[in-house]
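Supplementary Note 3. Input sequence used for the single-chain structure prediction.
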Amino acid sequence: MRQAWRVLFVAAAIAAILPSFAAAQAPVTLQEQLNAQYKTVKIGPDGEVAGDPGTLLAIQKGGIIAVPWTALALCPAKFKDNVLHLSTGFCAGMMQNVSGYFKKGAKVYPLKLDVNVAKEKISFQVVGCKVCNHADQPFPFKAEVVFEFPKGYLETASASQVEDTIGQVFPITTETENDQQAQGEGDAGQQQPAQEQPPAQQTQQSQQAEPQTVQAGMTTDQVQSILGKPDKIFNVGTKQIYVYKDVKVTFLDGKVSDVQ
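The predicted structure, written as discrete structure tokens, is reproduced below.
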């Protein structure tokens, strides 16, 4: 009887140890490694950093669209093959009245980082550092860049390799380094807050054209002059629907009635 109890006790002890051992041996995911490298920040209702500050970054490439941090929609730029593709078209046009542009050298904090290995993408959201950028606006601005990688890359890439790619747009910095850069630039105004830069001026530098807005009542020709030819056209009774890559425009009797 004692032998049977000993066997049961040993079995129970092993069963208790195994889950902990398995958890200890589980590999650290790329998401976890990047989360450790890029500490995200939380913004309070007053627009100030709530709690500990996040990892401080300095934007390396200008022209990234920035929107108020309370905005629900973002116009993400895309970084692919070591080239930053700025957001243009419908989204940029719809947000032009409330958006600005982060300039090269502006300081930001990581706001959200999402690794999607299956789609070979990493979505990286940042929010402006008000104190660092000497901004006097009541709320900071935020932006997003989606990093796209070749098929199969994220499955085998190390965290340091991915960080090198992210660093081409969002290198980690310190206040001292950035202040020295600002002093060296002098009147270049690299520390000017994103929302203060005239949208038309920045757009001319980055895409040579002011984004136009699709509005209710526009004709099909007017919409095509802004968005180009649609990928698909559906005729449903008195309605005509133009389908683009990231937007759907509905016409009623030849004029815009809805945009989704």
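The CA atoms of residues 34 and 160 lie 9 Å apart. Helices lie at 2-25, 30-37, 89-94, 153-156, 159-166, 175-185, 199-206, 220-227.
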